[in-house]
Amino acid sequence: MDIFLTILGLIFMVLGLAGSLLPVLPGPPLSWIGLLLLYMTDAVPNNTLFLIFTLIIALLIFGLDYIIPAIGAKRYGGSKAGMIGTTIGLIVGLLLPIPGGVIIGPFVGAFIGEKSNKVNSDKALRAAFGSFLGFLTGTLLKFIVAIVYFGFFISVFWKYKHLML
User: For the stretch 41-57, what's the b/e string if a residue is b when 16 or more beta carbons lie within 10 angstroms of its beta carbon?
Assistant: First the structure.
């Protein structure tokens, strides 16, 4: 059973890494499930505090990933309409089967939101660029968390591999 849980945990780790770059998959929560599966094996001592701490981080990063593009739009001069447009664009980009829709969606949403607020095109483009930078920042944060969790997984596995195999 330990080998099955470890392999399943490794699969979730790989999905978590992919999900940190592909917005369709929730990267950090998937990586956390990989850690949980590893700690469910009989070979690895349970570390509840570690699992709770890493879960909080995974959920925090997961939530921030949807907020950071709107913050980026605001930071680059966007209004509330631009922030709302960014969020709507992100949701639409997730739902539409367009390649790059999650990247394009917040950008276009911020631009349309600013234009609906009677802002000139330069300011609207600046806000849209801010939402794009916010998206890239969120992706980078997810990737860092997924890499760190993968490192935890490998180090714990390496330490207890003789008990699992």
Answer: bebbeeeeeeeeebbee
